[in-house]
Amino acid sequence: MSARLEEPLTKALGARTAGAFAKLGLETVGDLLEHYPRRYEAPGRLTDLATLVPGEHVTVLARVQQATVRRMRSRDGALLEVRVTDGVGSLDLTFFARKAGVLGFHERRLVPGRTALFTGTVGEYRGRRQLSHPDYELLGADGEGADEAIEAASRPIPIYPAGASVATWQIHRAVRTVLDTLAEDEVPDPVPHDVLAERGLVPRFRALHDLHVPTTDAEWRRGRVRVRFEEAFVLQTALAQRRTRAERRAAAARPPRPGPGVLAAFDASLPFTLTGGQREVGATIAADLARDRPMRRLLQGEVGSGKTVVALRAMLQVVDAGGQAALLAPTEVLAAQHARSLAALLGPLAEGGMLGGTEHATRVALLTGSLGAAARKAALLDAASGAAGIVVGTHALLGDQVQFADLGLVVVDEQHRFGVEQRDALRAKGSSEPHLLVMTATPIPRTVAMTVFGDLETSALTEVPAGRAARVTHVVPASNDVWVRRTWARVREEVDAGRRAYVVAPRIHPDDPGAADGPAGPTAPAGRPGTDETDDVLDFLDEPTEGGAPPLRAVLEVAEELRAAPELAGVGIGVLHGQLPPADKDRAMAAFADGSVPVLVATTVVEVGVDVPQATVMVVLDAERFGISQLHQLRGRVGRGTDPGLCLLVSDAPPGSPGRARLDALAATTDGFELAEVDLELRREGDVLGAAQSGRSSSLRFLRVVQDAAVIEDARSAAVRLVADDPELVGAPALAAAIAERLDAEREEFLERA
Ligand code: ADP
Ligand code: MG
């Protein structure tokens, strides 16, 4: 960044003004210039006063209708009452003072007919909206000549994100002061000239003027288009560099073994044929693994689309090539389950080195914190000696204690709990970088994948293996007793037919305040790697609950109720949540799986990966408290066998509320990609990429991942071309600086949060 943009505001504006700006987080000239207006008022169009909401801090453009000073009867002092109008409705402004004379200043300025911007917090007095002691700025004010006034009055009025300490016009004035003395060469442009020229975009210097002092609406729009592109371009360049750097690093090639091996034996033993998608993605991965560059691939696919089989085949290819594979799950429960299901899929092929094991075989080791000392030692030994071709665990596997003989592939289940830092930590494991395959059942819209996971190649499994039964979702009104009883009766019917039901609630203990263990927004980081705390982290959006709303349902309480419910008399009801000791969790899962306790009341611990084919019903209580993707994951837990699945979303969210809209969307479609798009649309701005997008320090102010798909695509292709020619950006120092400055800390953060 240029020296001028780094100049502290204390120097540019004086200590006092700078102090007020510091409260908005603006420290330098560059900060101030990147504090873009949020919107623009049309000078001729007054603000619709009917839309004001009490308690909101607002800036309105209105015309003075009348102004009167009167003495207060009850106490000392005087009151200036000003009524302003938008031509239809009106708003009261009040100014108090001890002496009537003090009010004369405002009275002389706020004469009927004058138009001004007023800012303050909307209050209510005797049923009327009012602003008390608002700040204001007259349009075409004193001191300006008539021409200037008319010109100024015809320009769009920028409205800045302001605060109590600084009004929008004070920001505007400060920005103008700075812009007036700014020279074009003091504003480096991260977007190279030819990239701008190809797209007809204005240089950065011009864009700053367009945004802060537009003379027409077309100008600020032009400025926004330019800044939006810049945001996408800087990010995409950084991601292209990441990919290029990964491409330059070495990995051990693990080509498929030509002759017989464990993969060939596995393929021969499969009781089904692979789907077209599994074969295709499998071939891509096989080719990736055969290269001496690290694979970095994201595999998306609906729950049940057969990702695990694809991943296992990749692992076996590596084993055949003499290496090992590690499978990382987000929780210990899931790790244990993965280990079981891999061993089951492999059959005798998982009995390498054991009596009765077949010729081409390997071993699956489970390594989790809850293992006993002896089992842990054995597993560590199997990993270190290479006897275990496949090691399953949580992120703790990447810790220092675990040694591998020759780690060739890391498979990560559920990417959203695996950030860039963890991806990078892999490089430290083993002599060369292992190949990486990240699996997710959460469909990610393409633009988000490009933005957030832009350093990974992506593949998708789109077809679900044939023979899978249907899955139906209904919304059940929680306050309707008949429906709720019918819900439990349905559970009963399934249990009587030999099947199982999950009942999910948002909290564990009825007396926990609020939501479960540490509520988290939809994009909050869910647990640290190496811990098992992801179990009960909720994904609900933090919509405030109405005062007096019933408390959220709790697992322990619901379990008690169901044990007493006549519909479920005699049915075993188990409990599963993240606060249980690991042995209890395992026991609860086992009893559920073998049918001895066919109803499991749980937190979202059952969200990912838990696989019990006989489970056919998923009842979610307080369903509106969960996010779309989470509910989609939850219902993916049922109907995995040949029997159809039923998902009942119990909720009191009123029709039309955002919570209800999510549930309706779920009931309407089973297409995960469609839901992911709906999810993005329903989420408020800033939720998509987490705080990083809405925060002041964000590199993304105008770019919106959903609406701006085309911009992101375009920026990506420009970035790829540039990085191919000049990987270290020697010829684009301003771009390199922008990447370092904007993306360093922050990108890591939001990548992890996504
Ligand atoms: P995912 O990991 O994507 O949720 P899985 O790999 O666990 O899906 O597969 C779900 C179920 O479908 C498993 O029981 C698996 O054995 C089975 N399955 C996988 N691929 C096929 C296939 N091509 N045909 C039939 N069943 C399959
Ligand atoms: Mg799976």
TrEMBL record:
Organism equals Luteimicrobium subarcticum
Q: Name one GO molecular function term.
A: hydrolase activity
Question: Any idea where the Helicase C-terminal domain is?
Answer: 533-686
Name the SUPFAM superfamilies for this protein.
Answer: Nucleic acid-binding proteins, P-loop containing nucleoside triphosphate hydrolases
The membrane-spanning stretches of this chain are: none
- In its UniProt entry, what is this protein called? Probable DNA 3'-5' helicase RecG
Q: Which UniProt keywords apply?
A: ATP-binding, DNA damage, DNA repair, DNA-binding, Helicase, Hydrolase, Nucleotide-binding
Which segments carry the region annotation Disordered?
508-549
Q: Quote the biased-composition stretches of kind Low complexity, using this chain's numbering.
A: 513-529
GO biological process: any one?
DNA repair
Alphabetical list of Pfam families matching this protein = DEAD (PF00270), Helicase_C (PF00271), RecG_dom3_C (PF19833), RecG_wedge (PF17191)
Q: Where is the Helicase ATP-binding domain?
A: 288-461
Q: Where does the record place Acidic residues bias?
A: 532-545
